Amino acid sequence: MNLSRNGVGLSSTGVSIGYGHGHVVHDVSLHLRPGRVTALVGPNGSGKSTLLRGMARLQRLSTGTVTIGEEEVSGLGARELARRLTVLAQSRPTPQGITVRDAVELGRHPHRGRWRSRDADGPLAVQRAMELTGVAALAEDTVDTLSGGQLQRVWLASCLAQDTAVLLLDEPTNHLDLRYQVELLDLLRQLADEHGVTVGVVLHDLNHAAQVADVVAVLAAGSVVACGSPETVLTAEVLSEVWGIEIGVTRDREGRLEVRPRGCRRTTALHDEPTLGEPALVAV
Ligand SMILES: Nc1ncnc2c1ncn2[C@@H]1O[C@H](COP(=O)(O)OP(=O)(O)OP(=O)(O)O)[C@@H](O)[C@H]1O
């Protein structure tokens, strides 16, 4: 992989998105920076996946623009975009009868010429991606024989093999056991720190967000209601108001944030009835 040439951010400006019955993402401006992990968190249905898909050009925007580096993504060809940005979606159809290696190789599609020619870096990128995600030993197995967690790692490997400056992931820890959850979060940090990759990741586990993110953006009812460092955003006040239950935030012995739901339902949640108002915190 040749990730060291990265350093391109991804920004939405005034983005609204709907599915034909009003908007579910409202006027969102968000800057994902190179070398930073930005976590999108929020209750079910708050618009995280829709926003991520809109930023990846997988969802039509009603208003606003998305830029990658200096260029609008709407002006790029599919191959040009795929050389810069990749998405690990929540679920993909499982192709029948292809090997893990073949599935990971699918990520090389924007780097190939016609007839699969001119991708000299391909075999090494595929091998490295399989090693980083722990699926190298499964390389010759067919993907339809894998467990959900193994398959999730294969698709992650395919994204890594694509070797892009921007990596977007929608709930990537789904299906992963504890070890691979930790390894995945470590890998995201490594990609950002050592290779300058711009990482945007939807996470449900707020402790994962606290652990991995430089910036946390909280969505509620389609709007970003708080955005900033984990310390400034993952507070008992913000989280309790957005999720509508009592949530405590403490620090463990090493000083890391620990988010603990206390389970008492409040009368209203932010996503039921917006009360927090405009974004309370400014992105770092
Ligand atoms: N394909 C679709 N057609 C119509 N409405 C949709 C579609 N996908 C999502 N929605 C609606 O858009 C809103 C936001 O959904 P989205 O999946 O973006 O939220 P989310 O924050 O990612 O949710 P979750 O945490 O449950 O994955 C929800 O009200 C949902 O019902």
TrEMBL record:
GO terms for biological process, alphabetical: iron ion transport
Single GO MF annotation: ATP hydrolysis activity
Keyword ATP-binding carried by entry: yes
Membrane-topology descriptor: Peripheral membrane protein
Domain ABC transporter: 10-246
PROSITE patterns linked to this entry: ABC_TRANSPORTER_1 (PS00211), ABC_TRANSPORTER_2 (PS50893)
InterPro entries assigned: AAA+_ATPase, ABC_transporter-like_ATP-bd, ABC_transporter-like_CS, P-loop_NTPase, Siderophore_ABC-ATPase
Keywords: ATP-binding, Cell membrane, Ion transport, Iron, Iron transport, Membrane, Nucleotide-binding, Transport
Compartments, as annotated in UniProt: Cell membrane
SUPFAM superfamilies documented for this protein: P-loop containing nucleoside triphosphate hydrolases
Family matches, as Pfam families: ABC_tran
CDD domains in the cross-refs: ABC_Iron-Siderophores_B12_Hemin
GO CC term (a single one): plasma membrane
Name of protein: Iron complex transport system ATP-binding protein
